[in-house]
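Entry for the shared binder. Reason: the reviewer on the internal report wants the predicted structure included alongside the sequence.
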Amino acid sequence: NDPDEGVVGVPVLGTGTSGAIYEESFVQEYFDTIDVLWVIDNSGSMSEEVDRLKDQFDLFIGAFLTLGLDYHIGVVTTDMDNAAQSGKLQGSPTYIDSTTADPVGAFKNRAGVGSGGSGDEKGLEAAQTALSEPLLSGYNDGFLRTGSAVSIVIVSDENDYSSVNAANFSSWLNGLQGDPDLTSLSAIVGDRGLGCTEIDWTSGDTVSAIGGDEYIDVADYTGGFFASICTEDFDVAVTNIAKVSAGMQAEWVLSKTPSDVSRIEVVVGGTDVDYDAVDGWTYDSANNSIEFHGTGLPDAGAVIEVAYPYDESCN
């Protein structure tokens, strides 16, 4: 009530932390044009695994047909000793495309590469050879298109024994089309480290694999997808490989760091998704990302919404 100075400023300082909820959303996008190179181990131990792949391939091609993709699909083997293989696309014509009358049957014919191939599996070397000169403009001419997305899919029960290592191969693949977002390698191989074993008690068949560490490393480096070759849900693995091959993501990096992982909420297409390392999502603290697994991988066009608390400080 001072008659001369009725108003006075009082400085106020403070710090606020936590309690804020951050919401962000992503959209599952995909490529329109895709060239997919399957690299199939044709050594003596692969007959059961290849049969399982052929049985489920309709799911892979079905995903492409549903999306209306312009695709090329080719098959090479891991055998770099046989001159008739050594990075050469198998079958005639050398690749399947969106005009092929029976793409599933055509793939099964090409995937039936036998089991008499070299036991010195060189999947990375075979893929690089297939997509490099002189085969690129020679025997494999027309398969790889300028500006298309490129997906390499390895199927093997062994680790890679190529002369090129995972880091160098990844660097080459990322530069293949001039944009690393256009290229990836996915792997259906043995679990990292000790590998895996699965027994089908109905048929009596046993699937056993050595850890495919080199292939898994490349998948990590290039944004591809890893699925255990011993999984019981081989249909889910093939479906997810199709999604990732078409350019869909399994992982999204968050804008802020969650302060309480237990309070993260994930909604896909309006439906809550559970925290589940098998068929849901998990949080990767190293990458500050949400990663989807199994049947939890979002479909094309799906909207992914993530809400989480974060520490926000201000002065």
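Summary line for the report: The chain is about 20% helix and 25% strand.
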